[in-house]
Amino acid sequence: MTKKDHGSEKGPLLNRRTALLSGASAAAIMSTLPGAKLAFAEATDAPSAEPSGEMRDLVAALHEAVDADATEVQEIYKDLHAHPELGFMETRTAGVVAKELQALGFEVKTGIGVTGVVGILQNGDGPVFMYRGDMDALPIEEQTGLPYASTVRVTNLEGVEVPVSHMCGHDANTTLVVAVGKALVRMKDRWSGTLVLVAQPAEEPIEGAKAMIDDGLYTAHGVPEPDYFMAMHTGPLPTGTVVLTGGRLNTGSQHIDVTFFGSGGHGSSPHVVTDPIAMAGAAMTQYQTIVSRMMDPTQTSVLTIGMVKAGETYNVIPTEAHLKIKLHYETVEAGEKMVSSIRSISENVARSFGISSDDMMPRVDVRGYAPPVVNSRDWMARIADVLRQAKAADLTLDAERAIEAVALFDLEAPASDDAFALIDGIDGVQGAYIFIGAAPPDMVAAARADGHEYPFFVHQPNYIVDPDAITFGTKVATVIALDALGK
Predict the structure, then answer these.
(1) Assigned domain for 115 exists
(2) Is residue 68's pLDDT more than 60?
């Protein structure tokens, strides 16, 4: 496929299960995303150019290639769904990916960043296209009622037994890594360059991408740096929808552990001890002033205290109190300011309780990191054109330009994903993070009839991925890769 024939056409999608939304209904749906900022402009009805004969031929070949493996791919998805694994524990999942990619002829590297898998396929001269999916599940007890629902319980890395399930769709994201590999191997005569497929561990604790980098992804393991980098994630919009946005999409994020130290003692005599619980409580109140009084109110910043743990019984003042804090921020500089503010507040609170020695000062540890997801505006605009011409999307949200019969949005959400840590600092790389709808259309219709925009949301125990959405997502990702790698 050449790089010059990119028109547009209204019409049905590659996937027949579509739910074309008007600009108004798209606005209603997207405005319910928690915390999302949306800028709305009128949709355009400009005339469309007919897709080229080459594009029509490519789309036909794409259907044939993806549909040939669709049943097998959906069975892989169901298997991964029934056997979820937590971050840095994805040994079985990694084994499935490695086996599938080896069978396709990829050079496979395993154990990167503990459980990460990379497949490399060289197919002549050309750019490097990297596609990433995340493998880890969540400590949530599944309540979907699916015949392949998870009943798994494991002892996590902290020694606690928890239920495990894929209530964020990472099983679908992992399956797409394999599915895109299968499709592009079948279509090797239509592209030239190097395809790199990444199955990344531990996205939920936002540690996996950095772990792969720290383990020498591009150095010790010799993985080529990408010219194009793409990640895709499912969401509770109807199967057959695609969400694109140019510029900043997700915030950066960090996980912070804070430990306060005291002397401990009898609950009846607090005057002779130093109480870490009281220190933690005072600090938690002051942490809330970081966002409200220290951060630019025109920029997104969020500080959430997700865990407080101290003591074991009524009448014993413990020696330690532990907090787990989640940060979201719009810029790297803002994140650094939030972390330094947490350190300052924690130490000043400790001093106010009489702590003076360095070894008793609060410990502040950064456990995970995700840079802001900032999509390449030019490439996202091109992707929108390619998907429209290939009839591969029925809902396209693009921050730079109106797409036919669809509203123009600038979507910024205070969510995070560590995918772009894989390309942090690489000059010239084009990045794209894309959402695809994966909720069964009948469930979406029923929810809306009942006055709800979504039938479920990510991280809820009833989150469902429509297996047909994986077939659809494979076509979306593959046509984007073919355009980037086109001969």
Answers:
(1) yes
(2) yes
